[in-house]
Specification:
By secondary structure, this protein is mainly alpha-helical. It has one domain (8-248): HUPs (Rossmann fold), CATH 3.40.50. The chain contains twelve helices and four strands. The protein has helices at residues 8-26, 39-52, 69-82, 92-99, 107-129, 139-144, 165-175, 179-183, 196-200, 204-216, 221-226, 231-243, and strands at residues 31-34, 57-61, 85-88, 132-133. It has a four-stranded parallel beta sheet with strand order 3-2-1-4, sandwiched between helices. Helix 2 links the parallel strand 1 (31-34) and strand 2. Helix 2 (39-52) crosses helix 7.
């Protein structure tokens, strides 16, 4: 039971309309995007350039000292292919200045702080340019909670937010995103050797199949087992979805 294959031409048309409508509502004409060299940010940039034209989009490369050279090369490749304005701002001095006070902080704390630092830079630049921040997240990450609250989740809108990771790959191929970006292992590049799938303990393809069965088809555990899903995999996905539900809603408040 696989995630449905996209009709890419229709999907791109809908997303272009979506982007233009969000810009009109906000009375803005420019976007900023953080280019990591990964699939989601590249695909988002290709969509935005199609929707608004290359002059309406400015990309920022925000590397830390452990960021791989291949990530930087891939981000520059996207910027060059699209012909968009881009700027590199090192976040190393900002991050290291903070963690001088907390030298024993583990890599998760450091990774989350990097993600939030990058978003702080993007929002400051958006203010300078009179622009909106383009989100790059996908549905798989949102449902699993594989996101940093107030970090990569922060944005004005996210065109890919309704697509599973496997569908983003399909869309990227249609848009002409370089194959080396589509095919490389997804990574937030938060520390050396880090990969999304290694950190989550499951593949995106497996996660997408389970999420599609749960959220789009509404299958219960018995039906999932009948379809051949590994109960341990289903349980793991359910735990991630449930434990991170707070990330998908506005902070609760107590009404008087």
């Amino acid at each position: 039971m696989n995630v449905p294959v996209l009709e890419p031409e229709d999907t791109v048309k809908k997303m272009i309309t979506f982007i233009r409508e969000r810009m009109e509502e906000a009375e803005k004409s420019r976007l900023v995007v953080g280019l990591s060299g990964g699939l989601d940010s590249a695909t988002s940039a290709y969509l935005a350039a199609r929707a608004l034209g290359k002059d309406a989009l400015k990309a920022f490369l925000l590397p830390y000292r452990t960021t791989s050279s291949s990530s930087i090369e891939d981000a520059l490749l996207v910027a060059g292919e699209l012909g968009i304005e881009h700027q590199t701002i090192e976040i190393t001095p900002m991050v290291d200045a903070y963690f001088q006070h907390f030298p024993s902080a583990d890599r998760k704390r450091r990774g989350n702080f990097m993600a939030r630092t990058r978003m702080a830079v993007l929002y400051d630049q958006s203010e300078e340019l009179g622009a909106l921040v383009l989100g790059t997240g996908n549905r798989t990450e949102a449902l699993l909670g594989y996101t940093t609250l107030w970090g990569d989740m922060a944005c004005a809108f996210t065109p890919l937010g309704g697509l599973y990771k496997s569908q983003v790959r399909q869309l990227a191929a249609f848009l002409g995103v370089p194959s080396r970006i589509i095919e490389k292992p997804p990574t937030a590049d938060l520390w050396e050797g880090q990969t999304d799938e290694g950190e989550m303990g499951l593949t995106y393809d497996d996660a997408d199949r389970v999420l599609h069965a749960l959220f789009d088809l509404g299958l219960d555990d018995a039906a999932l087992a009948a379809e051949g899903f590994d109960p341990a995999l289903v349980a793991r996905v359910r735990r991630m979805v449930d434990a991170n539900a707070f990330k998908r809603r506005m902070p609760p408040c107590c009404l008087p």
